[in-house]
Each structure stands twice: as C-alpha cells, then as structure tokens.
Amino acid sequence: MTTGVNCGQVRGPVQVTFARSVDPIVPLEYSITRKAVTTEDEAKKQAEKDGSITGTMGRKNTVPYGLYRCSGFVNPYLAKDTGFTAADLDLLWAALKGTMWEIDRSASHGLMATRGLYVFEHDSALGNAPAHELFELIDVPPLGADKAPRSFKEYTVTVKEPPKGVTLHRLVG
Length: 173
Hints:
4 helices, alpha+beta
C-alpha cells in the first residue's frame, strides 16, 4: 500500500470486478440454536446455577443457488513494475479454477465452484480489442424473474471466437 497522499490505495497488476448474479437471488433466513458450553467462564456459570446448559440463538442466511459473473484484468505494465511473473499468473489461474474453493470449504460457502474461466490473451501489451467487446463474446442469458434456478445445468453459456490478435483460453468451461 502507498503511504503518501493516496494512503490506502491499492492498485496492482490484477484487478477483479465485483461479481453479479445472472438472475435475481432469493436469500433464505434460518434460525439457528447452539446448546453447548464453549468457554470455561460459561462452564463455571452453569455449575453455579442448576447445571443446565443455556444456549445461543441466531440467524443464518443462505442462497439456494446463484450463478455469479465477474470480469478481471491483468495489466502487463503494472505486472512488470511490481515483479508479477507468469508463474504468479499461473498460480492465480489455478486458484480460480478451483483450488480456492476446495481448500476453504465451510457451511457459508456451500458447494461453490468455478463453472467458467475464460482468458483473453492479446498479442500486444497494449491490447488488440477493447475489454467490453471481449466480455460480450461470452453470453449467459438470465432464465427470467419467474424462474428459480437451482443448478448450473439450467443455463446456456455461449462463447464466440475473439477477433484477430486475441487468443481465447478456456481454462474452465
């Protein structure tokens, strides 16, 4: 991070947009209850009382299914300035292809998985096509507001070939 005028600004060779769901999501809320003594203080308090175990109540939100899409960019000039190498990029692709989900399973993540990873490589460091035009080559139409998607199989992903000077790498999908 910088410590000058723009203290806290982070700008590196890789930038990723916020993910947005292809279709509207419907979060569900559940009540959860814990009935266990988890600290020594709690155990002492329980022993001083009648020995019964009290609990904690809370809420948990889940999304039954959501297909999220985001875009990312690698700036070769910032990569050179920061020492970001091809090996670093390979490590990023490996994480995005699935290892980041496999080693961090939890109830809140459910069965998250990367369903598509499409990388456009330009022949020129200045780029051979605008990013927005390349991203439009990958189409995932929404199912519609009257649908409640529960599986990736319900979606159709269409990928068109890129223009001259750009190579499409399908790492997942």
